[in-house]
Amino acid sequence: MRIDILTLFCDMCESVLSESIIGRARQSGKVEINCIDIRDYTKDKHRRVDDKPYGGGMGMIMQAQPIYDCFNALCDKLGERPHLIYMTPQGKTLTQQRVKELAKLDNIAILCGHYEGIDERVIEELQPEEISIGDYVLTGGELPALILADSISRMLDGVLSNSECFEEESHFSSLLEYPQYTHPAIWNGREVPDVLLSGHHENVDKWRREQALIRTKERRPDMLEKAELSKKDEDFLKLLDENRL
Ligand code: ADE
Q1: Average pLDDT of every residue of the chain
Q2: For ligand 1, is residue 137 a contact (CB within 6 Å)?
Q3: Per-residue pLDDT reduced to its tens digit, 110-129
């Protein structure tokens, strides 16, 4: 999988993408992520990429030409048109389901807006998929693009150390995660639940599943409706409802 991030702030993206799991995955070639500076494609002699909005108003708008030429240069280089995504609070909210689908593609380009937005005509021309990372507004699309690139990369083969890492995790099985503990067994007077020290794997699995159900019911009851639940899960939730636990 190859991801190209079209941005005015390559250093900001590189600094995040060079660290930790994604940094390692890039180094070992499990994922290729490149940052492309939109400013390199401006035809303005002062290297400007933005201007004042027609009709007046605050802030600056990114111009169409540098973005259009930047994307077309990428298409020429790749010999194909990558799936283009524009990060914007006006897009569809990102879900783990969409992340899984995007992780199946070979080439993705992510366009980051900045300032007050992008000239609408380049959006009309390029017809990107518009994705939001939530109902709040950031100063630019870089952090959202990094979130998207991270969430996709961790789904790729070999990026996480073993596939259980994400199969067990929240949103994959549509439940929130159970609580986790590590050494020491007592910290600040707080003990690790006995069952986790018992070495009895079946009981541990049962306890974890039940904790995941309890958490999801308390914190995200909306997720329970979509979750794949076994008869055992249903029975446990019924007991919870009846306050018999
Ligand atoms: N750019 C600014 N805010 C954003 C958001 N919430 N999601 C995606 N892109 C954005």
Answers
A1: 95
A2: yes
A3: 999 987 899 999 999 999 99
